[in-house]
Amino acid sequence: GGLVGQAAQVAHLGAFGDYLASSFTLYDLLLKIERSINTLNSGERVKLLWQPQGVWLQSDLYGVNAKTNPQGHFYSVMLHLNVLRMALGPSWTPPTIHLATAPCQALLSLKELAGVQIQFCQRYNAIQIANASLSLPLRSIHNGQPLQTPNHYKNLYQSAPAPTFLGSLHQLIGALVSQGHPEIEIAAAAAGISVRSLQRRLAAAGLGYSQLVEQVRLDLAMNWLQDPTLKLTDIAAELGYTHPSNFTRAFKRWTGLSPQQYRQHRILR
Predict the structure, then answer these.
(1) DSSP string for 77-104
(2) Sign of CA dihedral 201, 205, 210, 212
């Protein structure tokens, strides 16, 4: 069960995987898992347990007996680890994992879990995640991968013409958001295609147009908030919000943090 879960990827999860991959941040991802896990597994429920030292992704496999079928529990935990690594990186390991099963030496020997404190015979399966990680983005729209360029090339890279259709659309919307929500007709005309064709191409990438606009706003906001000289009111205006409080509510919905909290966290790092 552990080996199969280790090999399972988000891309293998069909519509559920597409839904998770559309998350903006780890915080957004966790909320989506909690709300929709029953669409993937009718015998599993997930609850997020919020504590000062971190959040626990707590899983109850009430349809799978931990004593007679421990492999189902091992599979579930390893699959959840792979999902979390979309934001936390492929080599990330949690400080602590709880398992409802009896101790298993083979599981302890997995290289993927090296250094993890595993506590068996718990009431629920659970994975511990640091609160400081919740605002991490899942991925950039550029080829679905986070930017890995050195800091001194960052601005040059971001201002260069995007090599993909979605990347170009991302840049176009970024130039228009200060005027409010860019109409889809404007984006389609700039791309030289019909609105219906634009919607089809976005759907093929697992995106809706409104979701793309929100993702552009999040990307810009997270970038601008790293500059302490920029006022929150100016950032809100540049993102097309008529009032700073609207920006604050949207940013908290995306990340679980207010813009000020996110800025302070980035400066401390």
Answers:
(1) HHHHHHHHHHHH-TT---SEEE-SSPP-
(2) negative
Q: How far apart are the first and last CA of the chain?
A: 37
* CA distance readout (Å), 170 to 108, 174, 238: 44, 6, 15
How far is Cα 203 from Cα 197, in angstroms, rounded to an integer?
A: 10
Query: In this predicted structure, what is the pLDDT of residue 269?
Result: 58
Strand pairing report for 96-98 and 117-119: parallel
Q: What does the alpha-carbon distance between residue 212 and residue 157 come to, in Å, rounded to a whole number?
A: 20
51/225 Cα distance (integer angstroms): 26
pLDDT of residue 157: 44
List the one residue out of 70, 73, 74 whose CA is nearest residue 61.
73
pLDDT at 71: 94
**Residue 28 or residue 192, greater confidence:** 28
State phi, psi for 108 to the nearest 5 degrees. -65, -25
**What percentage of the chain reaches a pLDDT higher than 70?**
90
Query: How many whole angstroms separate alpha carbon 174 and alpha carbon 217?
Result: 7
- For residue 188, pLDDT beyond 70: yes
Distance CA 231, CA 73 (A): 48
Predicted local confidence at residue 152, as pLDDT: 36
Q: How many CA atoms lie within 13 A of 97 on its CB side?
A: 22
